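Aim 2 progress update. The chain analyzed this quarter is reproduced below.
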Amino acid sequence: MTIHRHCRAGRITSRLSDDGQRLIDLSELIRAYGEAPNLVTPDTTSKASQRYTLEDTQKSMRNDLLLREIQALREQVTQLQDEVRELRQLPSPRQLEPDLEPAENRQIKGFDDILRRFEKRH
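Predicted structure tokens:
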């Protein structure tokens, strides 16, 4: 193992316990290998963790806004679907004006035809 080799080579100092186990102090490991990248100690600044928290908060706020927008759009879609259902139940324009003549009969044949059509409507 690398740690055992470094102890034998003198790169890391260790001591033996009363029961014969090799003990290495944490500060010795930090001196030899450096501090762990995600470890925050009291004497190190926590700007990275604050930035992460700020970014996390911003993402959370953005997600909340997006969820509210989705909910509003779903409500709008539901309202539009209800409106379409109501419109489909209304009679068609042809059902409202049953006195409309077929296209071939709509051709005006003379002044009498115009007067007759006018009298039918009024």
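The CA atoms of residues 28 and 34 lie 9 Å apart. The chain is about 60% helix and 5% strand. These observations will guide the mutagenesis experiments scheduled for the next reporting period.
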